[in-house]
């Protein structure tokens, strides 16, 4: 059995002051030793702790690591390092490699900013349409206070205190920042980043956040279509900027998400097959769809009444975007949230409420629920979602044609839609 801990503090002190003319090495056991060398500038000798080991059997060349100098590195700390190295060897790890990795980590630790950038660049940019907004929120809420600090040193209290600095003024935004932060760090955690996992225990109450209220506004309620009729007739007055007039008309025609039109490109519209294919990148449910082996695309047939308008928009686009430009989601959402005031409606509604309105209207005119869900681009849940991959194109076209007939009745002037379609850039 190998003898260890041969040296004593007394032995080391004597060796430190002993007059020597050449290096002297004394073993402490289990690969640890001390080497004393004469000093040219001091009466005391230079003394360094060494650890010697082999990777493989005794025929392999020995390796040596300098642990530090005595007395700065005490005998107790040197033995602790030796035991750590022996543990690495038992696990098949090379102590030199592990020491180099630890040194690099100490000299250049992963910062909070590094981790959040990693999630944005490696995940959010490809998987989320609003990755730019996530980056902007991180830069405003987290980076100024914590960005330069090592991620592994940040504790639960640091995250809470930093977010609470702004949450009182922006409680809803605070909730979004927290959820995106937690998702980002889960992504980093799975890829080996060192962090305090108590971040995942933080909830809205801890940071003073609140959830966005879920308004359920529809412009068709209690058998009254008046508010939708007001909007449709207003579209024909020419009082709306072309971008928003075209956006609004298509929103109430297809029941699609605002982002699907805001990001829509002319190449998505096939006028031979008369199908608009929304790519997975613009589809909110793409991750769920692709997890089930689906493409994540949404296919919507183009009703006859919209062919002329959409062709004009595609032909007049100079940058590939259907609506002629790419506006920020916040800009579009803000503008859409003001229309109800211009129409004199008492209850506030937004662009997303037009989607609910179309869903309600389609159900009211007798369109089957599964066709409505398919038109909206919702993922089919449960077993049906696994086996039923149909796009229901014929059923969708029939539903949209019926919906266009209803919109024409509300419009009151069957020539009005033709006028709108011919003046898409007026």
Structure summarized in a few sentences:
This protein has 426 residues and is an alpha+beta fold. It has 21 helices and 7 strands.
Q: Can you summarize the main beta sheet? A: 4 strands, antiparallel
SS field, number of helical segments? 21
Beta-strand residue percentage: 5-15%
N- to C-terminal distance: 94 Å
How many strands in all?
7
Basic shape: elongated
* Low confidence ranges: 287-293, 381-389, 414-426
Secondary-structure-derived class = alpha+beta
Provide structural commentary:
This protein is α+β, with helices and mostly antiparallel strands and 426 residues long. The strands form two sheets. Strands 1-2-3-4 form a four-stranded antiparallel β-sheet, covered by helices on one side. It has a three-stranded antiparallel β-sheet with strand order 5-6-7. Helix 17 packs antiparallel against helix 18. The longest helix has 20 residues. 27% of the residues are buried.
Note the main attributes of this structure.
7 strands, 9% strand, 3-stranded antiparallel beta sheet, 51% helix, 4-stranded antiparallel beta sheet, 426 residues, alpha+beta, 21 helices
Question: How is the topology of this model organized?
Answer:
Layout: H1 9-17, E1 24-29, E2 32-37, E3 46-53, E4 63-70, H2 75-90, H3 95-107, H4 112-127, H5 131-141, H6 143-146, H7 156-167, H8 171-190, H9 204-207, H10 226-235, H11 242-254, H12 258-262, E5 269-270, E6 275-278, H13 286-291, E7 298-301, H14 304-316, H15 329-336, H16 339-342, H17 351-364, H18 369-376, H19 382-387, H20 393-411, H21 416-422
Antiparallel strand pairs: 1-2, 2-3, 3-4, 5-6, 6-7
């Amino acid at each position: 059995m190998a003898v260890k801990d041969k040296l004593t503090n007394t032995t080391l002190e004597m060796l430190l002051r002993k007059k020597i003319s050449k290096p002297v090495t004394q073993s402490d056991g289990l690969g640890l030793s001390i080497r004393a060398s004469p000093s040219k500038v001091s009466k005391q000798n230079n003394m360094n702790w060494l650890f010697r080991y082999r990777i493989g059997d005794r025929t392999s060349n020995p390796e040596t690591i300098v642990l530090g100098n005595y007395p700065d590195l005490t005998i107790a700390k040197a033995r602790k390092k030796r035991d750590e190295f022996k543990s690495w060897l038992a696990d098949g790890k090379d102590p030199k490699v592990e020491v180099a990795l630890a040194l690099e980590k100490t000299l250049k630790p992963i910062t909070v900013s590094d981790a959040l950038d990693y999630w944005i660049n490696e995940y959010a940019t490809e998987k989320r349409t609003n990755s730019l907004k996530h980056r902007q929120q991180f830069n405003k809420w987290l980076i100024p206070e914590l960005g330069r600090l090592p991620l592994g040193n940040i504790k639960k209290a640091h995250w809470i205190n930093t977010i609470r600095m702004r949450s009182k003024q922006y409680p809803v935004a605070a909730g979004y920042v927290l959820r995106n932060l937690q998702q980002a760090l889960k992504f980093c955690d799975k890829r080996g980043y060192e962090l305090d996992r108590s971040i995942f225990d933080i909830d809205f109450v801890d940071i003073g956040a609140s959830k966005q209220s879920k308004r359920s506004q529809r412009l068709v309620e209690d058998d009254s279509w008046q508010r939708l009729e007001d909007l449709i007739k207003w579209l024909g007055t020419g009082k709306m900027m072309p971008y928003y007039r075209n956006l609004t008309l298509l929103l109430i025609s297809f029941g699609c998400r605002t982002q699907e039109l805001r990001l829509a490109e002319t190449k998505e519209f096939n006028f031979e097959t008369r199908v608009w294919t929304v790519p997975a990148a613009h589809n909110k449910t793409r991750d769920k769809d692709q997890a089930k082996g689906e493409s994540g695309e949404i296919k919507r047939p183009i009703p006859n009444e919209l062919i002329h308008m959409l062709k004009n928009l595609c032909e007049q686009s100079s940058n590939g975007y259907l609506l002629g430009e790419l506006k920020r989601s916040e800009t579009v959402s803000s503008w859409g949230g003001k229309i109800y005031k211009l129409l004199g409606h008492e209850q506030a509604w937004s662009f997303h409420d037009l989607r609910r309105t179309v869903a309600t209207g389609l159900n009211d005119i007798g369109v089957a629920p599964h066709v409505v869900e398919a038109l909206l681009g919702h993922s089919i849940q449960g077993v049906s979602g696994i086996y039923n991959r149909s796009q229901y194109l014929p059923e969708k076209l029939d539903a949209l044609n019926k919906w266009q007939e209803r919109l024409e009745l509300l419009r009151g002037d069957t020539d009005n839609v033709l006028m709108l379609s011919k003046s898409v850039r007026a």
